[in-house]
């Protein structure tokens, strides 16, 4: 009886080397399998379905309703927005690139550890990341902003054709962002790659600074290639529209396929950032004097020694600040930034704050520390993480905004206070209610499954945007006390919610469930 | 026994939703004694350990550790116990020394550094005491968990699967820790699937099945081929 294949026998296993097309087909099929697997794990399917419908409804509403608003397609504000549309489209591309680069190639449909026993190809990983890219607060808000701006500036006439192009632009930008991200990741994982990628980042920052300081920003924005796509979008059913559509469809397909190449390259190389973090040496420091001090220090180390949090917070802090500079954002509109940044920061770990301890949660729970001290330390570290990112953003934005008047300053300070407390209260509440076992080692890791992240993103975006708009309005009223008056009930409300979360944490049964889940 | 039990568990029940993880366990452990908890997966060993560590509250029954009611004096129980959990047990982005500092600060220890260094050396972790534990192998993590449980010389030492994936040097060092603890009069509870090691380290063995205790025997009775057969018979 033959025991091994002869040289002339073809291997019969399903995992043998196959053609590129067959492998690609298999990878696409695997995305479906993994997606279904993920879907099974969704705890509250009814809510997930409702949220999907809400997301769809909001998208349709922002794409249509502004076209019928007073002043739509008019010669004033609408025309200004119309002129800015190509720049906004370019801005979206920058966002998708930076977001995908920061998350090391995009989010994971299935975590690396969970996927390791299965034959999941890097192509599947790439396609999964592409599928999950829109499940991100920055992506959603910017996409809605783009669709809404298009509708308002263009009006109802030929709106359908225009929005088709914008939607295709969203797809194309996201796919291109993914290609750039995988390429950067492949470079980062080469010897000296971290240095190269940091050099590139500095070069891009310096170039942006030079353009801004030499007053060439407007000239640069006037020449962005997105102008060509935008002209196609507003051309109705004409040949130019078909050309733009054809270009974007082809571009998207090419980017989707091309992204698999650097994804495979990256998969063959060691993730150096993570490897460095996991072998980092930290010299002992003197013992903190207070109990809270040592708890805060431990939690702080868990945050700042994590690759996804370091990268994420850098992008979150710097990105919107640069947008504020290039967009010449006035102080009254700057109130929108802290909410955006704080929400994004909470999505890095805050919404599942107890996962910071990983499997060490069981040991930590055996330490004789009051439950309230653990809660206070975690909430404080989250607050300072979000405050740090938000202040950097506002600081960058302030470079061009000049000196604020009293009501603008008051509105900004009040927004910062309110949204930070709002986000921390929500995150600590959710962390207790819905804990997940997550290992935040990988740059691509998220603190909760994708479906949960969408829910968190949407809720944070809605609450912080409403708050920010409220204070943005107050910044126009020549009375600085108005913002303070608005802030008092908001702070009280969030404070009460935070205190209630703290009280829940003191219940040993609830705490045991959280600890056992996060350490699982 | 002349002395009262340090660990006294009576009719312990632990329920997670619909699942009853522990269904009426009785357990007494005495000073200077090491007791092994044996049983199949899901027998309730780790849940019992978690209850004794003050991590999971009991659903019903009474649990006292060093005379302290685990429900009322949870913090005090944590003060007198040292716990090596069954999974992980390490904060991934903290170094071993930072773990030790955290434990020492919360337990108000003074002059602990020499003992900590000594333990790290005994478990061959001295070279990595400033390295984040996220990159540790499974065995290294287990060894450090034993160090963390033993560092403050607790009155009750709870070791849940301390030998899992550990090399012979780590196993010997763990035996030493257990022997030291017994010598100073501490109570040790050791949960493991490795019957031979449990027999070597402990004087008494409790066999759990389906969340209940099915036998309490001298550990020596579980030794060798006969012990293996007797153990299997208790598991089925």
Outline of this structure?
The complex is a heterodimer of chains A (520) and B (236). Chain A folds into 2 domains: 245 residues, no CATH class; 233 residues, no CATH class.
Keywords:
heterodimer; A: 520 residues; mainly alpha; 2 domains; 22 helices; 71% helix; B: 236 residues; alpha/beta; Rossmann fold; 6-stranded mixed beta sheet; 8 helices; globular
Detailed description of the structure:
The complex is a heterodimer of chains A (520) and B (236). Chain A has 22 helices and no strands. Chain A has 520 residues and is mainly alpha-helical. In chain B, helix 5 runs parallel beside helix 6 (168-183). Chain B has helices spanning 45-52, 74-80, 96-106, 113-122, 138-150, 168-183, 195-201, 224-235, and strands at 7-16, 19-29, 34-39, 60-65, 68-69, 81-84, 156-160, 187-191, 204-209, 212-218. Chain B has one domain: P-loop containing nucleotide triphosphate hydrolases (Rossmann fold, 3-Layer(aba) Sandwich), CATH 3.40.50.300. Chain B is α/β, with parallel strands linked by helices. The chains are: A mainly alpha (520), B alpha/beta (236). Chain A binds chain B through residues 275, 277-284, 287-288, 291, 294-295, 297-298, 301-302, 305-306, 356-360, 362-370, 439-441, 508-509, 512-513, 515-516, 519-520, and chain B through 16, 50, 53-57, 74-76, 78-79, 81, 83-95, 97-99, 101-107, 130-135, 145, 148.
